[in-house]
Queue: 2 jobs
Job 1
Amino acid sequence: MLDEQKHKDLKTKAKEIRREIVSMVHRANSGHVGGSLGAADIVTALYYHVMQHDPQNPEWESRDRFVLSKGHCTPVIYAALADCGYFPKEDLLTFRRPGSHLQGHPYQPKTPGIDACTGTLGIGISTGVGMALGAKLKKQDQYYYILCGDGEIQEGQVWEAAAFANKYKLDNVIGFVDRNYLQTDGYSEKVMPMDPLDAKWESFGWKVFTINGHDFGEIISTIETAKKETVPVMIIANTTKGKGVSFMEGEAEWHGKPPAKEHFDKAMLELN
Amino acid sequence: MEYKATKQGYADALIELGHENEKILVMDADVAKATLTEQFEAVFPDRFFNCGVQEQNMLSAAAGLALEGFIPFASTFGVFATCRAGDQMRSSIAYPKLNVKIGVTHCGISVGGDGASHQSNEDIGMARTLPNMTVIVPGDYEESRLATHAAAKMNGPVYLRFGRDKYPVVPEIHGSFEIGKAKTIRKGTDITIITTGILVNEGLLAAKSLEEKGYSTRVIHMHTIKPLDEEVILLAAKETKGIVTVEEHSILAGLGEAVAGVVSEHHPCPVQRVGVMDTFGESGQSQELLDLYGLRAPDVLKKAMKILT
Ligand SMILES: Cc1ncc(C[n+]2csc(CCOP(=O)(O)OP(=O)(O)O)c2C)c(N)n1
Ligand SMILES: [Mg+2]
């Protein structure tokens, strides 16, 4: 369980990460700010409380893995990895620049701490369940955390991965659907209705929990419960896209629009 | 120099076509804001179908609509049409030769910041190796508009390739448009430059530099990769010392290899390819990536000099 101090620390961390997200996308004048801000609390909970990992030893075999299946949200993971010490914070200045290891979408061979290449929506969850099967074959007991977008799960491949994880009873998989009800072209239930999500995942043999994806207590206690399950788990995390910056919250236009100077200044004031 | 998005030519033509023919439908896979097909949706909401993030379903469903007599223009990014939904393109559309138009944007290295995952440098190769597929790579806004109209007029599958960014407007390629008929936009007798897509202006700039050096340079704009205008290529092979091909695509399987294939079979001559080497792209600004990946007039000039000296 989370004591009060830990709770406060996580909140502070998430705010720092949000500042980095907005700064990175502003500087590069390119990138996805909304979905990164919305996932900041989940990523913070994972990297600063839940996951067994060692930034000094990114290849440690028994580390827990994280797959950013919604690969466009690199700013949130790069900010966390840099802060944890996987690579120097100055590297964040090179985000989306030629020659940088911080590519627009995750490039596992080059970035310390990135566990899989993603960018094409749908491929990350399949890679994740494949890795989880590999761990089973090697009799290792780390966990595989996979973060999907709610637009992303419209891809057929996601449901192929869901069936596969059920068949091999991959109870070392803990997935998240970042349920912000927004994607590139707007409101998700209008673009392609997917509700009820819980029933869909359950019918594929997954154990489903629905939580508030901005509540550290809920995120962390749900993961603790999830670890006791004997089947793969999907956590449907209700979130607000753009969370933390009032004028971006719930606004589809901030999916892939970089904040110009005036918006950047306003956002940084709010994230102070 | 005026710059204009090629995908805007596609979007404008779709609306014009929508008014002309009610069988025209437009589909997209959650990138309508980026491909600009949302502009068609605004005018014809009942004939626009957003499939969500489902490129595979979109392309096979487009085949279904074609079987029912409609003319669907299915739109997404080039990399997702060819790489994610390649089998649907092949088995649902090309094999039965259905009247589906696949209009893709964000092609080539000039995608920019999104990087390698989104930069399709292989899609021309994938599309042109499918039997029955017509492949068109327009050079600027106006040619994109004309090509979209031409694609709608013909019966059968067409792959239309556009970029993400704004690119130079090149008056030399305006006017008429005939699928499979290349445009000779500059006459010359020493060497030939054959361009496709948005690099046509780089080809013209290189031709100017070559003329300054005293070499009479022919420039052919090959907007259709398939069916390929073999006649114009062979004429160039016979009348000039060699050919430099220029494309915003891998040097493998694109325009360069298509041209080399034709001349080596019928009238061998030196062919030099300007394109993305056999490597993945990376993040950067779209114009700077064209520099970094060697897709500019000076790169064309260098290859031409290899043939001429
Ligand atoms: C296969 C594929 N199709 C299309 C895209 C383009 N794209 C990037 S992000 C995005 C929308 C994603 O929405 P969602 O999964 O809900 O992410 P979030 O709202 O968390 O940003 C799309 C369609 C892609 N990256 N991959
Ligand atoms: Mg979403």
Job 2
Amino acid sequence: MARNFGFAPIKGRVIDFDRNDKRVFEYVLEREPSFALCIGCGGCAATCSAANFTEFSLRKLNILIRRGENDEVRKIVDRCMLCGKCTLVCPRGVNTRNVVFLTREAFEEFDNYAI
Amino acid sequence: MHNKEKHIVIIGGGTAGCVAAGRLAREGYRISLIEKDKKPGGKINNWYQLFPDRRRSVEVTDYINKEIDHPLIDLMTGTELDKVKYKNGKFSISTGKSDLGQADAVLIATGFDLFDATRKEEYGYGIYDNVITSLDLENMFHSGDILTTKEEIPKRVGIVHCVGSRDEKVGNFHCSKVCCVTAVKQAIEIKEHIPDSEVFCFYMDMRMFGPYYEELYRESQEKWVVNYIRGKVSEVSENIEGRLVIKAEDTLLGKPIRMEVDMLVLMVGMQNAKAGLNLQDKFGIQTGVNGFFRIRDNHYGNNLSNVDGLFYAGTCTAPMNITDTISHARAAAVEITEYLSKN
Ligand code: SF4
Ligand code: SF4
Ligand code: SF4
């Protein structure tokens, strides 16, 4: 079945903000208000061991959550080892570790209600 | 006091012109203050609240009006400079209405014009109903109602930074300095008026250069959950429901983003005022690559022009906030006092 006839529908790369589901974002923000303070500097990702060995960046994860790009969030959120190094670095005092934790929790929560 | 025999003409009765006029009058100089509009105060009159503390702008205009309340200041509103003759360091100046006689020094404080947003056609100002400028939004704050043209409360508002600044396509390479913090201030004000609205700022860089600006930026995130997306809006269109559709790249994700908004606010930048540029030939003064008047030295001569006896104050030399404009005007007063004591 893996034949490509050259006209298979390709999922666009565009972030379709109006269609995206922002419930994960809302779930995290409500429980961890410091999440609103991220300025996308990348300090967290620079120090992160997971980011140094895999395609993972907490900075990116933060933004993906905000935009409701949940498929991608789901793909990478498990790569974090919850070591908490990033929290020590963040210049805006985002409780980064908790953001990851709550994101996972949000998926469990919403999956139970079968989105 | 012999200072009284010296006469200074100040062109422009905005913040810079008025502050300098007040200082120089208190030194005992006779001042002719020419303002083209009906009242002094300049651009601040249009603004509702000021960054970073969101005080009402009238508090600052009150201060400015007090500055020029002095018997040695002759304020001429609705007046523009007509002819200038320059000889042996003295200026003979006339307005369309009267001859001002000889001036021992001239201060140009003609300020800035806001960028004409219709020049960035891709943003649809003047084409789509709910594309407005930062100035239009201030007028809404004055009136107390933030409404779309259909008289509806906007649920989502987009803010576009750098409109007419940092943009080779319109010939403006410079950063207008104050529009980032204006965007932050206005985003907060929108959220305050419409708490359940969403606000998205599309920026190229967040330039929070002044005291308490970064704090205001932080407050906008922490208290008001204003959203910031790093990417320049490339185009705006209108869909069938009349909502605006904007396209940008979310550069921190490296992905294009598309979203609908009910209102789009363009952060128009600063340019040297036409009224100032009209003086160029009359005085034989020069502009820099940024279109503002060229100062004699970037570090210690920023009130001096290429003509002896002719000085600058405020945003005719570069984009500035109100605080810096006031400091620049006070510095101009010091330069002029020193010049007149020697000449
Ligand atoms: S907590 Fe997760 S994201 Fe933070 S440094 Fe550790 S592994 Fe990286
Ligand atoms: S270090 Fe903090 S502010 Fe910087 S990207 Fe990470 S979470 Fe955001
Ligand atoms: S202050 Fe900000 S919005 Fe204004 S021109 Fe500079 S970078 Fe752009």
